[in-house]
Structures are given as structure tokens and as C-alpha cells.
């Protein structure tokens, strides 16, 4: 819509205040159609209801959206990237908050899947827990500069592979040194997933054989 001139704006304001115009408007607002429209607008103003509506819609149209988004992205790739860059520059706080929200929601899904407690000692305090690479190959990922969020996405996309588990930081650390003190007679609890690979002579990052007893 073209910008209204100040004169035009002032005129419209005055016009809307005229008694006969007001009366006509009120008359119109009383019709069932107008009421329905107003209700619809109120619904959309109500963010919570809108949120539920959007979520349901998204869920029910997942496949159509995926196809549409892919086609749209392919056609507008450069434009989208440029826009995202500008947006990130202008709204660093929002971008940070949004990334954190995404990161947390992926992490929640992964924790839910792997049991939300330490596979060794059963610790459930979330701040003590981490996602453990069963085969201790996390260092390879770090070497390739794969971020946590990229890892989470790949775990979810690959249907939660068996080579991850939840461990608390203590048990995670103990796992690197040797059997965790929680193990009984050198045997881990049934929930603990034992690494499939052992240390290569030249690879100080990989698993040591469990010979440590101290
Ligand atoms: Zn533990
Ligand atoms: Zn333990």
C-alpha cells in the first residue's frame, strides 16, 4: 500500500470521527459476518491459541511443508543466506536465544530417548549428565569441528544410534581411566554400553583397555 500523505491521513482521521460515519461503522460491526471476522482476529491475536493452531497445522502438513521448503530454498538460496546474515547482525540477542532454544529442544529429545539418567550410576540431575560417545570417538568429531548441535541433529536423523548413552561427568571421566568405581567385580551395570574399540598404539584419545584397578 502506498504511503498516505499527512493531509490524507488527517482527513481520514476526521472522516472516521464523523457521527454518520461512526454510526455506519457500528451498524456494520453488528452483522454476524463482522462479528465472526472480529472473533477470528481475536483468535489470531491470542498468541497461545495461535501457537497451538500453528503447531497442529505444522504437524498435519509436515510432508507438504518439507517439499515446499526444499523447492523454495533451492530457488532462493542466495537471497535467504544474505537475509539471515543481515538479520543475525541486526538481532544478535534474538539469534542467540533462538539457537539456544533449538539446541535445548534437540538435547531434550536425545536425553529422553537415552533415558535421562547415568547409564552407570543412575544419576538423574541434568546438570551432571552428558551425552557419551560409547566408542570414545567424540574427539574425531571435535577434530572435524562438528558442533554439538550438528551432532544432535545427526543423532536424531539417524534414529538414535546405539553408540551413544547418557553418563554423568564422574562416570564419563572414570570410563576413560578404567573401570568406574561403581562397577562390581569389574563388571559394569547392565545399562552401561561397553566400547567396541580399544586403544590404537598411536592414539592417545581412544579407549584404554580396562586394566586400571586403582
Ligand atoms: Zn554416573
Ligand atoms: Zn559410574
Structure description:
- This protein is mostly helical.
- It has a domain at 95-214.
- The protein is built from 9 helices and 2 strands.
- It has a two-stranded antiparallel sheet with strand order 1-2.
- The structure holds zinc ion (ZN) (2 copies).
- One zinc ion binds at residues 118, 120-121, 123, 167-168, 170-171.
What's the alpha carbon Rg, rounded to whole Å?
29 Å
The coarse silhouette is elongated
Percent of residues in helices: 55-70%
Question: Low-confidence segments, ≥5 residues, pLDDT <50?
Answer: 199-203, 205-214
Q: Tell me about the largest β-sheet.
A: 2 strands, antiparallel
Order the strands across the largest sheet as they lie in space.
1-2
- Structural class, from secondary structure content? mainly alpha
SS strand fraction: under 5%
What do the pLDDT scores average to? Answer: 87
Small molecules (ligands, ions, cofactors) in the structure? zinc ion
What is the chain-wise order of helices and strands?
Answer: HHHHHHEHHEH
The separation of the N and C termini measures 77 Å
Tally of DSSP β-strands:
2
How many DSSP helices?
A: 9
In a nutshell, what does this entry contain?
The protein is 60% helix and 5% strand.
Which characteristics define this entry?
214 residues; mainly alpha; 9 helices; 2 strands; 60% helix; elongated; binds zinc ion
Structural topology:
Blueprint: H1 6-17, H2 19-29, H3 32-45, H4 47-60, H5 62-90, H6 92-114, E1 129-133, H7 138-143, H8 148-157, E2 164-168, H9 169-177
Antiparallel strand pairs: 1-2
Helix pairs in contact: 6-8
Amino acid at each position: 500500500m502506498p504511503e498516505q500523505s499527512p493531509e490524507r491521513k488527517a482527513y481520514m482521521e476526521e472522516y472516521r470521527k464523523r457521527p454518520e460515519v461512526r454510526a455506519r461503522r457500528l451498524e456494520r460491526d453488528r452483522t454476524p459476518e463482522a462479528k465472526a471476522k472480529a472473533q477470528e482476529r481475536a483468535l489470531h491475536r491470542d498468541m497461545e491459541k495461535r501457537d497451538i493452531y500453528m503447531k497442529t497445522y505444522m504437524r498435519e502438513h509436515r510432508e507438504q511443508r518439507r517439499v515446499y521448503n526444499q523447492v523454495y530454498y533451492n530457488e532462493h538460496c542466495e537471497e535467504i543466506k544474505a537475509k539471515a546474515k543481515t538479520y543475525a547482525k541486526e538481532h544478535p540477542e534474538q539469534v542467540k536465544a533462538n539457537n539456544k532454544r533449538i539446541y535445548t529442544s534437540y538435547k531434550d529429545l536425545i536425553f529422553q530417548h537415552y533415558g535421562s539418567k547415568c547409564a552407570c550410576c543412575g544419576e538423574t540431575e541434568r546438570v551432571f549428565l552428558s551425552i557419551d560417545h560409547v566408542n570414545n570417538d567424540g574427539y574425531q568429531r571435535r577434530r572435524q569441528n562438528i558442533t554439538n548441535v550438528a551432532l544432535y541433529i545427526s543423532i536424531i536423523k539417524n534414529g538414535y544410534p546405539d553408540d551413544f548413552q547418557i553418563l554423568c561427568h564422574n562416570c564419563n571421566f572414570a570410563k576413560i581411566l578404567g573401570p568406574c568405581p561403581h562397577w562390581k567385580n569389574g563388571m559394569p551395570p547392565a545399562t552401561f554400553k561397553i566400547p567396541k574399540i580399544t586403544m590404537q598404539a598411536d592414539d592417545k584419545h581412544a579407549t584404554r583397555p580396562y586394566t586400571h584397578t586403582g
